[in-house]
Amino acid sequence: xxxxxxxxxxxxxxxxxxxxxxxxxxxxxxxxxxxxxxxxxxxxxxxxxxxxxxxxxxxxxxxxxxxxxxxxxxxxxxxxxx
Length: 82
Hints:
It is built from 2 helices and 5 strands.
């Protein structure tokens, strides 16, 4: 498993948004913009479903987390298996 590095601004934003650092077990990984990857994990918070999106760059020996946020727009981002 590759090491995960979280840039300081991503860590600060995640803490402010109340996002836990369970980023090493995504339910789905999709292609993002500019060669970045997006890891998805679904959560239920107060009876509402949210999607955690973790945007990262894949380096040779690590994943560098650029930002992370929760969204309720699951249908927009979740890619169903074909």
